[in-house]
Amino acid sequence: MHPNRNHDSAQGYQLVLFRDDLRTADHPALLAASEAGPVVGLYIFDESSPGIRPLGAAARWWLHHALLSLQASLAELGIPLLLRRGTTAELLEEVIADGTVAAVHWNRRYGQAERAVDTRLKSSMRKAGITAHSYAGTLLHEPWELLTQSGTGYKVFTAFHKALCGTDIRPAQPAPTPQSAPQGQLPYSDELKSWKLLPTSPDWSTGLAEAWTPGEPAAHERLATVLDEIAQDYQDQHDRPDLDGTSALSPALRWGHLNAHQVWNGLSALASRTPEAANGALALRRQIAWRDFCWHLYYHHPGLPTENLRAEFDDFDWSWPEDSDQAAHLARAWQRGRTGFALVDAGMAQLWQTGWMHNRVRMVAASLLVKNLGLHWRVGEQWFWDTLVDADLASNTGNWQWVAGSGADAAPYFRVFNPELQAKKFDPSGSYVACYAPLAVEPVVDLKESRQAALDAYQQMKSAQSQ
Ligand code: FAD
Fold it and tell me: CB 3.0-4.6 Å disulfide test: which of 227, 320, 321, 384 passes with 328?
C-alpha cells in the first residue's frame, strides 16, 4: 500500500470517470461508487492519448450539450461533475495528487487505444495506492465472454445473434439515490465553453438543434415513444425513410444516455406482454444486437477502422480523392449531395442538416460511393465520422466494410444497390426526397456502366489472386 494514501472511503471521495456513458441510470460504475461514499464525476476530453481518434464536428456539438445535461442530472443527485481537457493519464495524476480520492471507478471501453489508456491507468492508480474498479456497462456482454465454440469472436451476425438470444441479459439498474455532496475543496474544473466544441463561424448547428435534444432525459422520453408507438410497426416500417419508423435512438446509444440493457429489456418486456407488438419489438431488438456485434468485431479485430477485414480487398483498385481531379470531383459531389441520384442526395442533405441519416439511405449512399463512384470506403467513412451525431467507431467502420464487401459477414460484392429502384421501393410517394429537396443535377455516373466497372474490378482482383 502507498504510505501517503488514505484508503478510508469515509475520508475521501469516489471518483467516477465518465466517457461514452453520459447517464445516471444503469451506470454500474456510478452505482458502485455511490454505495462506497461521496462521489465526484470527472469527464476528460482526451484527444491527445496515443491512437485516440478525434471526434467529428457533429459529435463535438452533441458532446457539449450532453455534458451540460449530465451536469444537471448529477447535480440533482448531489454529485459534481469536473471537466478537464488533455491527456487522461496526466490529468488523473493531477486530480488524485491532493490525496482526497479514495478510489476510481469507470465502465470499460473496447477500442484498442482506449483500452491501452485504461490499462495504463489501472497500473498507475495501483502504484499511487488507489484502487481502480472497472465495470461492464456498455455492451450486453463483454466481447471475451460471448465466443464461438472454437473460442474466437463471432464473424457472422446471425450466429452471434442466436448465441446472444440464448444468454441471460441482466436487468437494468436504477440511478443512485441523492446523496450529500463531498466535503472540502474540489480539484480545478474547466469551463465547458473554453473547449469550443460548438461551431461558430459559421454556426451550422441550427438543424441539429431542431432535430435533437442531447442527454439522458430526452433519450428516456424517446425510448418511451419507441415502446408505445414505434416498435410494434418496426418490422413493416423500418426501411421507409419517409416515415418515423425507426427508433432514432442511435445517438442516445452512442453517447450512453441509454445503454443496450435498458433498450433490450424494454423491448423484451413489450414482446412478452403485447403479442401483437412482439414481431416488431423483436425485430428492433435484433438491431441492438448489431451494435454489440460491431463492437465485438472491433474488439477482436482492432484494425477494423482502417484495414480491410478481408485482406484480399487490399488489392482492390479503389480511388482516393487525391488520386485525380475526377475522383476529387466525385467525392465532393457525394459529400454535397450533388450526385444526381435523388435518394442519395436527399440522404446527404439530411445528414448535413440533422447529423443523422436513415439506415436504408446510409446503405444506398455508401454503396453508390464505393461501387459506382469507385472510391475507397474510408473516404465515405471519414465523412460520416465528421457529420453523424451517432458516429461510432465500431458501427461506422463495421457497416462501411459490410457495404464495401471487405468486412466480416459482408454483403456479397455483386449486390450493388440501384438508387433509383431503391427510391421507388422505399420512398414511394417521394416525400422523403421532397423533404430534403436536393438540387436536380445530371447524374455524375452512368449506373449501368459504373456497376459493370465495379464488377469487372472485383473479377480482376479475384483473378490476380488466383494466379
Ligand atoms: P434502429 O433501426 O431503430 O435500430 C436501433 C439501434 O440498433 C440503433 O440505434 C443502433 O444503435 C443499432 N443498430 C441498428 N442498425 C445497426 C447496424 N447496422 N449496425 C450497428 N448498429 C445498428 N450506426 C451507428 O450507431 N453509428 C454509426 O456511425 C453508423 N454508421 C453507419 C454507416 C453505414 C455506412 C451504415 C450502412 C450504417 C451505419 N450505422 C451506424 C448503422 C445504422 O444505420 C444506424 O444505427 C441507424 O440508422 C440508426 O437509426 P435508428 O436508431 O433509428 O436505428
Answer: 321
Give yes or no for residue 249 CB within 6 A of ligand 1. Answer: yes
Q: Give me the mean pLDDT over the 201-210 stretch.
A: 96
CA distances from 19 to 107, 149, 373, 389 (A): 8, 33, 37, 16
- 396 Cα: distance to centroid of ligand 1 (angstroms): 8
pLDDT digits 0-9 by tens, 405-442: 999 877 778 889 999 999 999 999 999 999 998 788 99
Query: Taking phi first (over 0 means left), then psi (-120 to 50 degrees means alpha), and beta for anything else, what does residue 215 get?
Result: left
CB distance 77 to 178 below 8 Å = yes
Cα 326 to averaged position of ligand 1 atoms, centre (Å): 31
The answer to whether 52 and 113 are in contact (CB under 8 A) is: yes
pLDDT at 283: 98
Which triple of cell numbers denotes residue 377? Answer: 470506403
**Per-residue pLDDT, 412:** 79
CA distances to 157, 239, 397, 402 from 289, in Å:
9, 18, 16, 16
Q: Is 384 in the pocket of ligand 1 (CB under 6 A)?
A: yes
Q: Is the CB of 95 within 6 Å of ligand 1?
A: no
Map out the domains of the chain with their CATH numbers: 5-138 (3.40.50.620), 140-168+215-300 (1.25.40.80), 311-461 (1.10.579.10)
- 6 pLDDT more than 70: no
Distances (CA, A) of 159 to 163, 165, 243: 6, 10, 31
The overall average pLDDT reported for the chain is 95
